[in-house]
C-alpha cells in the first residue's frame, strides 16, 4: 500500500494500492490505479493534524474518492462528468500534479485549469530555474505560448551562460559555466526526488528515500566542486570539463536551431488562429488582454505541448462557436497521429464532448466508466434501470405468490395432518430464506452458484437492487407579474450604435478586433417569445445586449419598452462579480475583511429589502438548488461557480420579470444543471432573449426541441405549441448586421463548419 500526503499543494491527501513488482515498462499514456482515495482538507486542518495519524487526518477532511479505480487507456478521449461539488477539479489537479501514487514522474501531463488562467503545469517553477528576463505580462502572445509550451527561454538562458563562459578570458570559465548548469539541474532533480519521497511509503517509500539521500550527496558534492578555487583544479579535470562544456553547448543549440524554432512557431500560429487570434492580436502583449483572451492564450500553450495526458477543464469557456468547433476537430485529429495523448475533458457543452470515446463519471465517491458517447450512456442507463425495475417487480410478485402458497399449504397441512404439504411448504420457505434473489448473472446468463458466487452457500443470490438515482436537478422559475395590457416588451426600430472614439480605444484593448457598430437593428420581443442571438466574437452581441438592458443608448433609431416591463439581465460576468462581492479586499490597517462574509441568504435578503420575508427568500433559493445551510452558512467566496449562477438567477427572479436577457448563462454549470435550466426556460411563460455559444442549449430553449431528433417528445412539444403558440427566432449578428436564420442553429453551425474546415487544412 502506497500513500501520499500532499501538504505542499495545499490540502489534497491521496492513497492508492500498488504492486511491489516492476511487471513491465510503463506506458506513460495509461493509468491503472487501484483503491484510490482522495481527501481534501483545509490548510489549518493540515497543519494541526501533523502527528495525529492518517486516519485522524482523513476524518477531518472532505472525502472525494474512496477505494475507487482510476483506469485510463492510452489514446482514449474521456468526458469527466459529475455534479458541481463532486470533486472533478480536485481529481484533475491530483492527476496533473502527480500527487496520486502510481503516476510515474516521467509522465508528461498538461492541464488547462478553469480557475487559474494561464497556469500550465509543464512550466512549473522549480528550484534552480530562472524565469525569462521579460516578465510574463510583457511577453507577446506568440512568445508566451511558445515559452509556456517549450520553456525555450530556459534553454536560451543555459546557452547564454555557456557561451559567455566559453568566450571569457578566464581559463577556468568553461568549467565554471558547466558546473553552474549542472548544479542548477541537480537542484531541480533534488526537488522531484524530495517530492517523490514525501508521497510514498512502505517499500517504495524506502527506495524513494534512499534515492533522495543519494541525490542530496550528489548535490553536496557538486556544490563542493562549484566552490573550488582555480588552484585546486588539476589540468586534466580542466581539459575534460572544458570539452564537456563545448559538447553541452552544441546539444543545447540543436534545440533552438532555426528549422525547429520555425516549425514550433508555425504550429503555435496555427493553433492561435484556430482559437480566434488574428496576426495583429498574436503580437499584442499578454498584459493588454482580457481574462477571456488570456484563457485562450493558456489553452493554446497547452495544445502546443507534446504530452502523454492532456487535461482540459471547461476549455470552451470564452470561446465562440468557431473556436469551439475548431477545438473539437483539432482534438479529434490528434487520434490520427502516432502516440496520441490520452484526453480528459470537463465541459458543460454536450455537443463539444461528443468527440469523446468514453464517459468517466464521478459519483458517490467512486469512478464508473462507459464506452460510448453521452446520449448512448444516458439511453443505456435508462434502459438498464427499466430492465432492473421490471425484474424486481416480477420477482416481488413471484415472492408474494410463494409466501401466500406457503401460508396456505402450512394451514391446510396442519389442519389435515398432511405431511407432504408441510414438507413442500418448508422446502419453499427454505428457498425463500437461502436461495432467493437474482437468477441471472451479471452477463445475463442463468445463475450458477459454483460459477457466479463460488464459496457462498447460504443467501447466495443477491437481492435485486435498483440503483438509487440522485435527486434530479430541478430549477423552478417564478411566475411573471401581471402585465395588465398587451404590447411588445421591447422594441427596436432601425437602431444604430457606434462607440465614441475614446470608448472604442478602451474596448479594443480588451476585446477582439471588430467594427464596434450596430447598423439598423429592428427587433421586437413579446410575452412568451424565444429569441436566440448567435454569432462569432466581435459581431456585436454584447453591444446589442447592452442596448436591450439600457446600459447603452442608441446612436440613432427608436427603442421602446413596455411601461410595466420588469427585466432580468444575466451578465456573462455575473459569477466574477459575485465572487468579488463575496470576497472584499482586506482592511489595510487590520488585514481583515471589514464586514462579515456575505452568504446567498444575506445577499438576497439585502436585495429584496423587505419585499419578501425570510421564508419566501429561502423558498426561492431552495427551488434553484441552494437549500438550507448552503444558503445561510456558506460564504459566497466558497460557493462553486454553478451555485453562484443559481444565486444570480434568484436575484433576477424574485422580481417576477416578464423578460429574461441571458448572456452565456451555462458557463460554470454542470451538464445536468444545464439540462434542467434548458427545460425550465423552454416552458417558462415569460420572454427569453438568449445569447449563447452552446448549440444544444439554444436548440432546446429557443427552437423548443426536447431532443435533437424527431421523436415522441418532439411531437408532444408540437401539441403544446398549438395550445400556446410562441414566436421562436434565431438571429445571427455579423459585423453589426442582424439577419434571421431560417434554418436555426443548424444553419449557423453549417456555415461555421466550412470556416473550420478551411482552418484545419491550412
Portion of residues within helices:
40-55%
What's the number of domains?
4
Strand order of the largest sheet: 6-7-8-5-9-10
Number of helices: 26
Shape: globular
Distance between the termini: 51 Å
Largest sheet: 6 strands, mixed
Report low-confidence residues grouped into runs of 5 or more: 1-10, 44-59, 116-137, 454-460, 502-515, 709-717
CATH topology of the largest domain: Rossmann fold
Mean pLDDT across residues: 78
**Could you give me the name of the CATH homologous superfamily of the largest domain?**
P-loop containing nucleotide triphosphate hydrolases
Question: At CATH's second level, what is the architecture of the largest domain?
Answer: 3-Layer(aba) Sandwich
Strand-pairing-aware structural class: alpha/beta
What's the total number of strands? 19
Alpha carbon gyration radius: 32 Å
Protein name: ABC transporter domain-containing protein
InterPro entries: AAA+_ATPase, ABC_tran_Xtn, ABC_transporter-like_ATP-bd, ABC_transporter-like_CS, ABCF, P-loop_NTPase
GO molecular function: ATP binding; ATP hydrolysis activity
Keywords: ATP-binding, Coiled coil, Nucleotide-binding, Repeat
